[in-house]
Amino acid sequence: MFLTKMPAPQSSNLNQLVSRLPQPLHQLLGRPATTLLLPDNIVCFQRTSAQDLNRPRRGRALHHRFVLIYALRTAVTVCVDDQTIRLRAGEGLLVLPFQFHHYTKPDREELSWLFVTFELAEADAMAALRYRPFEMTPPLRVLAAELVAAYETESTAELPVLLLALLLARLRRLKSFTHPAPKTVAPATGLMMRVNQLAQRGGVYPGIKEIARALGISPSHLRARFKASCGVSIGRHLRRLRLEQACGLLRLGPQRVSEIAETCGFSSIYSLSRAFRMAYGVSPLAYRHSGRAAPGKRPRRVASPAKEA
């Protein structure tokens, strides 16, 4: 695999590390463990050509999963929400759930990019990495190589989960990024971002009238502006957000389907089931059971919502 030959970091010399360890005053009193963020439903794959980056969907992808990108070879512009990020070879990027993203302007057609998609119950823990490309330091490359090797060879998910958890912990501790933090976008260019924030605030999905009132504009003006700037109707976009949240709750949450339907703003379990079948080709219960029976595999999508983007 393309990451398995990365050199180990210089700090890995065990003799030098051990020589710096102190003598403990109390051998039975150690450091307490903090909450460990364990990812779930990990999928690792590669892209080798620029035209494959936007597959399997046409247009801007949107889902409830995290997307960790390692650009090993060839620079490409990644468009995330209203930000354009030039991701160069040797850099990485984490795309958070419910962020629209697609790829454009590759330096060349041939490339080598690693993708690791996963789910995480505590999504806010990775919020500092939003729009922030990072350098693939030797420790990060070594961890990625170990993750890919374990993903290829292990018959169970335990080791890949632990390796990815360690990789995410290192990312959360990064102090320097290859690009500066993005400036606050103006309301006109950050419309989708603002709508997403309002739609997911407080656990209850507002309607178009409530969102327009919060933005200080009329519903008709909101519909026109959103369609013009985002290329999709706001009603269709909000429905996709609700469905993607339902996917995450079905995978990670213990709620009944009826409770998930209410949480995600559907009028009934039947309304959720109908919309879910149209978007993903399976019922909510079938999606939940297939995800639990075969981690890492996802139900096929017979009607890709990406055509709406």
What attributes characterize this protein structure?
Arc Repressor Mutant, subunit A; 3-stranded antiparallel sheet; 2 domains; alpha+beta; 10 helices; 309 residues
**Rg, please?**
21 Å
Helical fraction equals: 25-40%
- Just name the CATH architecture of the largest domain: Sandwich
The CATH class of the largest domain turns out to be Mainly Beta
CATH superfamily of the largest domain: Regulatory protein AraC
Q: What is the strand arrangement across the widest sheet?
A: 1-7-2-5-8
Ends apart, CA distance between termini:
34 Å
Annotation, overall tally of beta strands: 8
Q: Low-confidence segments, ≥5 residues, pLDDT <50?
A: 184-189, 292-309
Number of domains: 2
Strand content range: 15-25%
Shape designation: globular
Mean pLDDT: 80
- Here the CATH topology of the largest domain equals Jelly Rolls
In terms of structural class, how would the helical and strand content be classed? alpha+beta
Order of helices and strands: HEEEEEEEEHHHHHHHHH
